[in-house]
Every structure is written in structure tokens, then in C-alpha cells.
User: Fold ABC transport system permease protein from Flavobacterium granuli.
Amino acid sequence: MLVYLRLLKESFTFAMNALRNNKLRTLLSLLGVTIGIFSIIAVLAAVDSLDRKITKDLSSLDKNTIYLMRFSFGPSEIPQWKREQFPDVKYDEYTSLKASLNNTEQIAYQFFVKRESIKYESKTVSDVNVVPVSYEFIDIQGLEFEKGRFYNESESNSGTAVIVLGYEIAKNLFEESEPIGKNIRLYGQRFTVIGVLKKQGAGLFGDDNDTSVFLPVNFLRRMYGDNNSSMTPVILIKPQKGIDMDAYKAEVVQKLRTIRGMKADEDNNFFINVLSGFTDLIDGIIGQMNFVGWIISGFSLLVGGFGIANIMFVSVKERTNLIGIQKSLGAKNRFILFQFLFEAVILSVIGGIIGLVLVWIISVVLTKVLDFEFVLGMGNVVLGTGLAALIGLISGIVPAITASKLDPVEAIRTGM
Assistant:
């Protein structure tokens, strides 16, 4: 063991000498490994960070949550012209489903509307995500409050002019003053603030709760009716845990078809969008990003491997005389072999570490600039280091074998 530790120390010394004595040549050769490790780990870190953000943003939602509406989240075999004729889901359909659906935790009714400006005295916040929704929404999404509360069933059903503010909206409008009980203006109407949500952080899709406001859906129904083209209604359904989702979706289809009085030979004129299908789609995209990243980065690693091999062949040639002397003094072939293998691995790992440091620096900068948590996990650090070592091992094996098989007499004569 001591022999191999000494061998490792000598190999490290040779690698450092190679860096010091041939700085430009060595650095150019290591550049391929550095770029390759940087590319792979940067892609993996970015994808891991994105995946972590998706998980965090969707953690408050049950993956079996159903979005019942006239549009589909994903591709559909139904022609577009036919989809455009689908009717919107109605408030009456929401109340009927709520009364008749089995194995259901909560059902809510929501409008998707365009972004608006919100005012308090002389202050205005623009581009606000407005969420008109019934009171059950809090049980479906699991909102957490900094202060105040969500509106109750009575306020929701009557369309009372109350509003819940996201953290950033409340901060921009009221700064350090107390928002609860204050009146703000939205849609030209006065709303009373009854709650402020806890700070959540930037959302994956932009419309995070920090920059959103929530108000009773019946307030907008009372103002604009149910047939306003600028509002897209959706019924949110949260089934009980552990049920058969296929059977549950079939029940939803059967109930809504019955409510709409559809005939047996008629196709469904609505879509059941399950959140798990959406997350599966995102997981597929993330997997493809990983795959493409590995392919692109693989070429850089291939070039880096050739660079390490080139360094090692030059190192063998420069130290031919030394190899001959070592072998004449009794050094075995495996000692010479391991000496050059260790050197190749150490050089490659140095290039990999440089690549990892670059990824870490960029991750810190992006986290601060983009307000997005770019994480370089320990798993990716270990993977990057392991890949660099593997590239060094593969690239150094042929030069190491060549060095170990040199004839000591010929090596000494060649080196003189």
C-alpha cells in the first residue's frame, strides 16, 4: 500500500511538473476535458434545478388534480375546428358535479383572465395575475398566509368584494403599513384586503402566488356574466387519495355528459386534463434535455480524451531515458504502467475540477441575477469528478502500456 501511495505522490508531482514546464501545451490539451465536464455538469445542474423548481411549484397540488375545461393541456386527436366549437364549462355544471361526484375531496370553479393593474391610493402595480376562483381553491392548492385569511363560502357565493394579495403585491402597494382592511381598486371597483400570502418565490411559469391576487369568482360573474370571451372558465377537481383514477375520470365524463344531455354516439365536447399528465410531459422534456446535453458534451469529452492521450504520449517520449533507468533498477512493468495511468487521471481530474469550478461560479451568478435557485448538487460534483477520472484512465491506458513495455536498454540508449 505504501508503494502505491508513494507512486501516487510521484505521479502527482510529474503531473504538476508537466503543467509548470509546458503550461500552454498542457492547458490547451486540458481545455477539452474542462469544456466537456463543464458542458455536461452545467446541463445536468440546470435540469436538476429546473426539476427541483417544478417539484416545489407543484408540491402544494395533488398530481391527480383534474382541470375540466374546453381546452386540452397537450396534443389532441380532435381537429382544431371541432375543438373551437366546444362550449365552456358552466357554473351550474360545477355545482351539479359538486353535488353528485363520489370520492371527491374538493371541487372549485375558476376563471382564467388577462392580467390587470391594481391600485392603492397613488400607487399602482401593473401586470398582476388575477385569479377569480371559488372558496374551495384554498383546499386544493393549500395556500399559506402571512396574515389574514381566505374568503369563506358565504363571501364566495355572494361575490363579496374582498381580495387576497400575493406577498409581492402587498409589499409594493403597502410597503411597511398594514394591508388588512384597506381598500384597493381593481376592475374599476373597490375591494377590501382580507389576506396576504406568505412569500413563495418565483414560479416556474411566471404566474406565481407572490404576484397574484385572489377574489371570488362570483364577483366577476356578477359584473360580466358567464359568456364573456375574455374569461376562460375551468372546473378544478381534487379526487380522494388512493382511488382508481381511470374509474374516477370515467365517472366525471359520465356525469358531465348526463348534465349536458349528450347522446351516446356524440363525442365528448370537453377535456379532462390531469395534472400528472402535465408533469409526465415535463419529465419527458427534461429527459430529452439531459439526453441532448450528454450527446453534445460527449464530443467535448472525446476531444479532451485525445488531448490527455497526446500529453501522455509526449510525456512518455520525454521520459524514455528515466523509464529505462527505473526498469534497469528493478522497477516492474506494472509500476511504470500505474505511474503513467495515475498521471493521466490526475491531469484529467484537474481539468474536470476547473470545469466544476466554472459551473459553480456561473450557478452563483445566475441565482443572484435571475432570482432562480441554480443548484450544483454534490451528486453532480461526484459525477463530474468521476467522469474526468474515467476519461483520464481511458486516455492514458495506451501511453501507459507503451511505457511499461519499453526495453530498458533501448530506452536508456534512445533517451541519451
User: Anything to note?
Assistant: The first strand starts at residue 66 and ends at 69. Residues 2-57+285-415 form one domain. Residues 275-318 form the longest helix (44 residues). The CA atoms of residues 239 and 248 lie 8 Å apart.
